[in-house]
Structure formats: C-alpha cells, structure tokens
Amino acid sequence: MTDPNSxxxxxxxxxxxxxxxxxxxxxxxxxVAAKDRERAPHVELIDGMDYWVYDGKxxxxxGLSACAGKAKEEFSPEPLPYSEMRPGCYxxxxxxxxxxxxxxxxxxxxxxxxxFCGQLFMEASDREFGFxxxxxFNDWVVEEWCGAAPGRYIPLMLIPMWDPPLAxxxxxxxxxxxxxxxxxxxxxxxxxxPTIHDHGRYWDPVMAAxxxxxxxxxxxxxxxxxVPQIAPDSPFMANLAWGAIxxxxxxxxxxxxxxxxxxxxxxxxxxxxxxxxxxxxLERAEQVLDKQRYWVSRGQKFMDHATTDVDMDTLNIRExxxxxxxxCFIEDHHGIASLGEIGEDNIMCETxxxxxxxxxxxxxxxxxxxxxxxxxxxxxxxxxxxxxxxxRYTPAEPPSRLNG
Amino acid sequence: MTDPNSxxxxxxxxxxxxxxxxxxxxxxxxxVAAKDRERAPHVELIDGMDYWVYDGKxxxxxGLSACAGKAKEEFSPEPLPYSEMRPGCYxxxxxxxxxxxxxxxxxxxxxxxxxFCGQLFMEASDREFGFxxxxxFNDWVVEEWCGAAPGRYIPLMLIPMWDPPLAxxxxxxxxxxxxxxxxxxxxxxxxxxPTIHDHGRYWDPVMAAxxxxxxxxxxxxxxxxxVPQIAPDSPFMANLAWGAIxxxxxxxxxxxxxxxxxxxxxxxxxxxxxxxxxxxxLERAEQVLDKQRYWVSRGQKFMDHATTDVDMDTLNIRExxxxxxxxCFIEDHHGIASLGEIGEDNIMCETxxxxxxxxxxxxxxxxxxxxxxxxxxxxxxxxxxxxxxxxRYTPAEPPSRLNG
Lengths: 404, 404
Hints:
2 copies of one chain form a homodimer.
Chain A: E1 14-20, E2 42-46, E3 49-54, E4 57-60, H1 92-102, E5 104-110, H2 119-122, H3 127-145, E6 153-154, H4 164-175, E7 181-184, H5 204-213, E8 216-220, H6 236-241, H7 244-255, H8 259-262, E9 267-271, H9 278-298, H10 317-324, E10 325-329, H11 333-337, H12 339-342, E11 347-349, H13 363-371, H14 376-390
Parallel strand pairs in A: 1-5, 5-6, 7-8, 8-9, 9-10, 10-11
Antiparallel strand pairs in A: 2-3, 3-4
C-alpha cells in the first residue's frame, strides 16, 4: 500500500471501487472446450441485435449498462449491440484510456451478464456446468481483465452462492491468485437462499473462508435482484430515489447478525449504495438497541424472530461499523458533510463506469467538487487510501495523463 | 399564533406533534344509543384482562402502547389492563399533569384502538356503522379530549378512508369545529386502497377538501399497517431500526405524485418518522431527477409505471419539500446536525407519550440536549413555532410548572 506520509499526497487520481464490465462476447467461448461453445454463455446476432444466450434464455444488453460517453439526454434502456457501445465498456485496454482521461487510477468492476453475484449460474438448470462457467469468469477476470493492465484493476470474484463449501474452495483457489474480494448479495432471501441469519448457518463456510483469507464481501446495490417499489403504482423516479433502502437494510442486517463477532476479520463493502443514509440509520440502531432491547429480548413469545443469538447488551453498533462496514459515494454531498459521523476510514469513492449514475469523464473533478474542502489526508483516504487498505491493493504509479 | 418577536422567547415548553391516546373504555359506549352499546367498540374483562371488543373481534392493549412512567427495562409487549396503565394514557386531565411535568405545552395525539388512520372502521363488516363510530371518535376528540384543557391539545380527526367523498364531508364538518389535521396513511396500498398515484384520482375529494380547508394530512409511521422486514428471518432489532423506510417512501411518493401542484395548500406531516434520513433522500431525488429523467420518460414501453403525469422537467424537489412536507424528531441528533440541509421551518418536535420511544418525563430537557446549541429563534421554531403555524394553533399560556 502506498505510504501517505512518504511524499506529497497526489490527489489527482482516485480508486473506484464500483465500476462495471460488460463481458466481451468471447469471454466463455474462448475458454471452454469446442463441444461446449454453444452451451457456454455466448453472443448471437438475432434480428440485428446482440443477445447473450445461455441455458435456453436470451439476454440483450440494456443501453443503461453502457451509458459512458453519452449525454444524459441520450441514455436509454433500449437494447444495445456491442458495436454501438464505447469500447471501454467491454475492452480492458480501451477502459484504461477512459480511466486515464477521468483520473481513475484503479477500478474494481462488477460483472453484468452474470448479474452482480453470479445469479445467472445459480439459476441455470445445470449448476455443475454453471460452476465451470463461473470459474472461467474468475480466471478471465484475473488473467485477462486485470492482466491487461497490472496495477489498474482490483479483481472481484464470483462464488457459487448455491454451495457454500464449494464457494469456500473457490475462494481459496482465487485468493492464491491474489483476489481479495468476492461478490455477495445485499440480501440472499429474495434469491431463494438462506440469509446471513440462518440458524443452520448456511453461510458459515463462505464467511469462515473470507475471515481466514481476508476477503471482502462486496455487495452491489441490486444484488438481491430486488427493485424497490414503494407501492405497485408509485412513480418509477420515486422508487429509483428510494434505492438505498436495500443497502441500509443490508447494513442493519449485518450489524445485528453476530457475523462480525464470529468472524472478526470479515469486512463488507456496500457498493453503489452511497453513504448519506448511514449516519441516521446508525444513530437509530443505537437508539433502538439502547431503549428497546429489553422488551425485544423478553418479547420472544409474542413475535417471530424477536431474538437472535447476539448478545444485545454488549453489541456496539459504532464499533462494529467502524471495523467491518465500508461504503462508497459518487456525488453524495450530504454523506461527505456527515463524514465526521460516519468515519473517514470507512468511505471510498466510485465512478460507476459505464452506468447512468457515472460522472465519467469528469470523475476526479466531480469527486473533488464534493471532497475538495477536506484536509489533504482525508481526501487521500477517500480517493484511494481506504480502498488500498481494504482490498490490500497497491496500484500502479499514476500515469502521465495523455487524454485529459 | 404566538408572535416570536413580541417578547423574550420562552424556550421552556414544546409542542409535541406526535403523542398517543389510549381511548378510554367508555368513549363509544357513552355516545351511542343504548341499543348499540354492545355493537360499538367497548371494553370487556375476559379472563382477568381488558379487551376491546368490536365487530366480533377482541383486541388487548399492548404494554408497549402504555410505557409512560416505566423504566426501559420494564417495557413489555404483554397485554396490559387499563388499571395498570398510567392514567395519562387515557385520561385527558391526568395527561395534562404529565405534560406539565415534562414541559409539553400542547400535544397532537394519534388514536390507538382505531389504529393510526381508522383502519378499524375500514376493516369492519358494516362500514356504515363504522362511519358512525368514526364520527363519535372525532366528536369525542374535540369535545372531551381537547375540551378537557383548552389550548393544550391539537385535535386530529379520522376520515373514512374507504369513501373519499364522505371523507370530504366529514372534514368539512370537523373543520367547522376547528380541526386542522386529519390522519392519513403513509401508504394506502398495503391497506388495500388506491394510492395517491391512482389514475382514477380516488383521493381527489380528500385532497381537494384538505386544500380548501387547509387541513394537514398527518401520516404516522406504521399507518400503512406494514412492519418493515429486511428478510423473513432478519433480527427484529434490525427491522426496528429500519422503520424510516416507510416514511422515506411516503415522502418520495408525495414529491413525485403531482399532488402538491394540483393542491398548492396541501401539507403533509410525517409523524414519528424522524428526520435524519431526509437530507440524503432529498439529494438523491434531485440527482435521479436531474440525470435519469430523460430515459425514464423515454422508457415507458420498457417499464411499468415509468411515467406519471408529472412534468419532470419543472419538478423542483427542494421547493416542494419546503412548501409541503413536515417532519418531527424526538432525539435525532443527525437530523438536527443536518438542519441546514432540511430547513428549519419544516421540522417540529414530538414526545411520543406514552410509547416506548418517548423520553417522558424528560421531554423538554431531552429536546434541549439536541437543539440547545441552536439560535433561540431556531429553537423556538422547532419547539413550537412551526407547529403553531402548520396547525394554525394558538396554545394556552404556559402554566406555572407545578410538578417539575
């Protein structure tokens, strides 16, 4: 990790902990045996449009997944063929040019066609084959995406969510290749999986592996496959603005889960979840814990799930948050104004390239508008220091900027 | 309304815009014809416990509805007979003594057995009779509860949620008696009712009446009869801390509903919803509106509810909030720290007597701990000025405090 005391702090570059890869069409086809090329996820041109084809289903790419380079007036959810995407969406070398232009020193990318935590392979009819495809993705991320530009990409792996012991083995395999983060779900329940509160401790093999290997559980907003809906006919814009209810629910679930006590090295990253909601929910969690824990403990017979095996008398919300929970922001002025309440060691920045929330190509200037008034050391933490520490990642030296 | 410039500001008393009445057992029995006494909501002693009996169902009072005077260690959800409640729970004169002791100058109370917006009568098998009972409640609130101590209680009426034209008439009837607030639902959808986005404009008679009569739509958290649940087995404490997702959803629904444009006098009060979540969700709403409205407008054919009849190009989130939305707090330090972002004219305080969130008997001292560092004029607005203005209410002169 870069030592912030060794030199004048370079505040011209950021590490983005939430960007997106649109998988290149040949990702799997190039890696599987010839007999499996039609069976592996692959792209077919159907009626003039590119579709990913896998397990008997077709998936077009949404224009909203490839907004980079477009004006907001041009964003569209209509299907988009690869030929109309900015190459940085799917090409690791072209992406580096876009990163250089925007002041992005390094980037952690979530996958697209696999969905945020590999739901594609979990939902497939043949999970054994799905696991092979998942492993190909993991190898590709390390070898080809990250390999294309050493020191510029932080690898993120997928796990077979349907088989925690197998997931633990895969985590071990990828940790040996330098991977420090795996994609997890903000809420496994809507995916039909046991939650982190499961009394059978379904997730223990995964969390034990993460604890042992010091791998970060990275949960992208939407990784529960849930779209928040205030009411069946509430305006889409209202639902969109309400998105952080998923991330806030995830944070509260984890803080009250007991996981961090059982696995003291475990850290979670709430990706694209923003941070401005954190201070309120942390304070509220402390208040209900202080005042309501007696009757909640006593109320067991009156309520489902009134109790957990967590000792509520010793639960320290702020300490658990400080030691285990990380958030990130794009343009969250309120979150940064509240940084003193959240803690400057727990927040990172992101650029969401190439999605519609992205500020690309004005990423570093955009972030500096939000944090530029803070002390240089704080800025450095938010821009890259915290990400370097959390993901145990040393980025390349910043390039001389050619395209800015 | 008290003129804050006329004198040295009295910061020793507050107006609470969210407290609770446990209806006295004889409320309806005393008002209906003799033949209806068994049919009206009434209390029966069954196996040593008081139950409200109505429409063939029995309802005990939860101990959590009557915590006043108890230490937090004693709070309990177990059923509680009236004889074990603090008289201030159900007796308007006894309540005044408790208010005097805690520095509560005036109080707006939500009902209990009727539920927060009169769901009891809506769900009854005979809604015509239910409406009679609802009218008795409204008359009782004005005549007996508020009448017991003029200038100390702000009346809140119920409306027949199932019949908006009838509701409008009832609002007119009660407005003539000085009522300036009606209970509405934070989200009518889970109650089986059309939402405020209903294309058939189900709620127009109510909102037109509120606009005309300048009545505040007061939505208590939980008035959708929904209990937030992060996942089916998420710890109860996590769900409890997550409660504001209902209020935040309500705020966003209203801001994007177009209601405030159609009814410019309409104001909504989010009761017991706290305020610390507001700045984030307001900023997020502005951001999605700025950046995503083009594709959302264009995306109609790809999504349900992608569009509303609201003109998103002219929608001003902050202005709508400032002119129409009111929140209140008990101990929300983050909300008060963010008051500059929320606006000091939109926030009131509450004491939640006699529920488990209440700080009683330390209400005024509790609020002063949170706001005491603010300028006197700001404190005055939060303590009472904003409530007086919103509810067009002039409280009695503060009594000399006897019990403090």
